[in-house]
Fold:
Amino acid sequence: MQEGAETGGIQTVWMEAPEHRSLPALLAPQLRLALLRLSKTEKAKALAQRGLRALAGFVGALKVKYADLEISIDCEPEAGLADNGDLEQDLPALLEALGEAARESGTALVMFIDELQYVREEELAALITALHRSAQRRLPITLLGAGLPQLRGRTGRAKSYAERLFDFHEVDALPTVAARLAISKPATDLGVTFEEDAVSHIIEETKGYPYFLQEWGKHAWDLALGPSITVADAIAASNTAIAALDASFFGVRFDRLTPLEKRYLRAMADLGAGPHRSGDIAERLGRKVTALGPTRGQLINKGMIWSPSHGDTAFTVPLFDAYMKRIMPGKDWRTG
Structure:
């Protein structure tokens, strides 16, 4: 589905939340597009135009605080409508105006936001407040978000009622039956088969992680010479898949780290796949837990690790422990 699409009478806007970008800057261009589409519906035109005036006030009041909010709106703001300069007051008013236009047009607006864990907590709180207000008024506007495992905790800290407002579904490693199907069915549909041992090897190597299943399947497919993908193909695919992941998936994440953050993750890897107690990680580094608190917090903010329970720390993606051992071999990392 394309960005800004309409499907089955539902308006959709698609966004990805990068690091260091504000929520207002992320939302404003997409909500403008939604309002422009709604303004083409005759019965919703007046309310959609009011929504655009709300957006103009929203942008005008907040662009001083959010320097990356650069969009311009070609209409005059309405005084007193979403223009207080306080995100937690203005965003609910803006979404209300948009929801009223959507209701009048007989449609609904669904916002899809990926990488939602990168939205700052105070901005996430404003978004939750706005959605809660819209839900209380039964306005047809909602959110489908995706993010790393720490997202549930972040929403709970942002607003205590978040867990009652949202349903959280974990996308984790696939069970063996589903992983086998994910590998074999697309190939079978094209007249190619995976040997059972080849499938078992790929599942063992990938731990059932969906993206890694795709990578191993692709590389096994590329290496196979015939219509049957053998265990030898799967073993060879492990080498090429790991090299590709090291150069992109893992490498991109590693390059964003400070030297101390790298050592922290290497200490985790030294302990195994995890999760690990914070005290055990600190002991590996010869440091106090309290001294490493800021480093741990930075790694959580960067999406590298998360806390599955109090005092525990885990990698957000599998196989990262093995990557850390490859990229920082030997013992020099302890004093690096």
The chain has a mean pLDDT of 91. The domain at 256-335 is CATH 1.10.10.10 (Arc Repressor Mutant, subunit A).
